[in-house]
Amino acid sequence: MNLLHHLALGFSILADPMVIIYSLVGVVCGVIIGALPGLGPSVGIAVLLPMCYGLSPACALCMLCGIYYGAMYGGSITAILINTPGDSAAIMTTLDGYPLARKGEAGKALGMSCLASVIGGTVSVVLFMTLAPIISNFATSFGPSEYFALMVLGLTSIAGMTGKSPAKGFLAAFLGLFVAGIGIDLVFGTTKFVFGNVNLYSGIDFVPVAMGLFGIAEIICNFQDNDIHVDKGSLKFKKLLPNGQEWKRTLPHIGRGTILGFIVGMLPGAGATIASFLSYDMAKRTSKHGKEFGTGMIEGVAAPECANNAASMGAMVPMLTLGVPGSGATAIMMGALMMLGISPGPSFFVKNAEVAWGLVASMYLGNIILVCIGLGALSLFVKILNVKTTTLNALIFAFILMGAYALENSMFTVGVTLFFGILGYFLKKLKVPAAPMVLALVLGALTETNLRQALIIADNNFFAVITKPISAVIIVIALLLAFGTPIKNLFARLRGGKKAA
Amino acid sequence: MKLKAKLGDLILAALSVIGGIVILVLNKVQGLALVKRNQMGPGFFPTVCGIAIIFFGLLLFVEVAAQSKKARTDEAVRAEQEAGILDPKELRNLLVFLLLGVFVLLCSKYLGLLLCLGLSVIAYLIVQGREKWWKALIIGVCMTAFLYLVFVLFLHVPVPKGPLGF
């Protein structure tokens, strides 16, 4: 009953037409950006973040969420049409989506991708609104020690799980932590690494850094034109809808993939890519036609698509209830919330009940919008994707610089964006992940504050901070996530050595 | 210019170690204390970051060494290490964006931000997009109008104005 009351509160916020308009803008922009190869939800959110200035928290959040799940679906458009995933979460969709397009069934694959995304998204919203308040209630007893442990978990998990080299992930995370520390020390008033530059006194905001690392760096690498030729007939509305037989075949996979995706999405650092991979694999193993996967099976499109949308919703759970973002995109969203004066964490559902439940309601709305524009305006998106990449790059570049200026009405932030854009390009080429750096930048100040408070409470005894029961469990999980794979490899090598001996 | 992945990693590792040392030295130069008034001082976090950056830089050296050892027997690892990481087309793109960015940074005070952004869109489309000048002009003007509409009229951002009044 309480849940329904809260949901009613959320839907009452949607009565504001501006919320609906911003949600629509978010979904449309998300689909377009997500569909552009190389540009995923992180880029979409980072680029459009300045638009949130001056908006009410509800409008801003609805737009950001719209971008997030719009981009998750958008990634599948190019994956199906030209075998080039818009982002890593759509890689698995290419396996059966592209063969379907080659058989002349692009419309069917795109329709199924959209519907599976929407079903995955909607079911996971139900899971979200059931689980989030429970976790929030549990976490209200957390003090600075537990929060510090949570921050460590957030940082280590994403740094340890990105890319082949954990060292590069951690390098990025500590570089982000260092950048987060620049400015005036809040307790002692000392300036840190400012060197007399007045612009640095208030520190380096995460937004220009994110816009540079995700936006500028991506458009520098991205100049291959899309060459999309689709038979217009295959994109007719009727052709997009799966028939009864196809529904029967795909629904069990969508159900399993959604739950799996949601659970994987909740794990810090796991994310939508792993969720879509696992869901595809599970569908392949459980399907009667498992051997035919990869030749253009509709189940092979549905399973990863529902999972990646469910994972994006799952990733919101730790971000909103514990204040620990599990991915680059949620890290940027958390930063955006903080920018709007809202602190995600256990008290989010209590202190900002209207915004929180408005967000839940907007997720339902976003899914409805997604199905409408995903099926109704597909031809338009395909046309947009055929615009020359250099033209899109020029427009994104101008938009990013203008957005960077609008953040503080200062050319300094434009310079910061450019600097991090160029740094981001070289980091990308060296395969250093950008997400841990942005995450560390968002969590840096919080980590420092919580550690400081925890140390004061524990009489400067660091051991006492990390051995409190809940903190200890979280720290152990963080260490396992960060160093589990290297330790496993070491044991495997030792075992191998013994056998050889 | 062909920068191999292995050399790139070694440069990154070296820069990390040097960067970490620079952070520690600057921390000391600025007099940021580790502990102050019996509390965690302002220099604590930068010190931790500096040490960690050095540590992971060294770890990267170890990773590269281990990969090199593996590359002797594993063809795939060798190919990965020998692959070039910088594409000349991308570097040209980077240079163009950098020049346009610097142009916007330096000239927006005199020409106005929107005009500079419009000009940079036109320049990019002509240089990188190989568009006809009139097409680039139309796109540039439309983009400037869009930015004006969204940021100036809608979000009320006070942009630096130029001789044309925007």
Describe this structure in words.
- The complex is a heterodimer of chains A (501) and B (166).
- Chain A has 501 residues and is an all-alpha fold.
- Chain A has one domain.
- Helix content of chain A is 74%, strand content 1%.
- Chain A has a two-stranded antiparallel sheet with strand order 1-2.
- The mean pLDDT of chain B is 89.
- In chain B, helix 1 runs antiparallel to helix 2 and helix 5 packs antiparallel against helix 6 (133-154).
- Chain B starts with a helix and ends in a 12-residue tail after the last helix.
- Chain B is mostly helical.
- Chain B is flat and about 60 Å long.
- Helices cover 73% and strands 2% of the residues of chain B.
- Chain B has a two-stranded antiparallel ribbon with strand order 1-2.
- Chain B has two domains: 5-82; 88-154, no CATH class.
- The longest helix of chain B has 28 residues, at 44-71.
- At the A-B interface, helix 8, strand 2, helix 9, helix 19 and helix 20 of A face helix 1, strand 2, helix 2, helix 4 and helix 5 of B.
Number of strands of chain B: 2
Order of helices and strands of chain B: HEEHHHHH
Main sheet strand line-up of chain A: 1-2
How many distinct folded domains of chain A? 1
- Using only C-alpha atoms, the radius of gyration of chain B works out to 24 Å
Strand order of the largest sheet of chain B: 1-2
Q: Kindly report the greatest chain-chain contact and the residue count on each side.
A: A-B, 58 and 66 residues
Total domains of chain B, how many?
A: 2
Integer-rounded radius of gyration of chain A:
22 Å
Low-confidence stretches of chain B: none
**Biggest sheet of chain A, in brief?**
2 strands, antiparallel
The helix count of chain B comes to: 6
CA-CA gap between termini of chain A = 66 Å
Summarize the structure.
The complex is a heterodimer of chains A (501) and B (166). Chain A has 501 residues and is an all-alpha fold. Chain A is built from 23 helices and two strands.
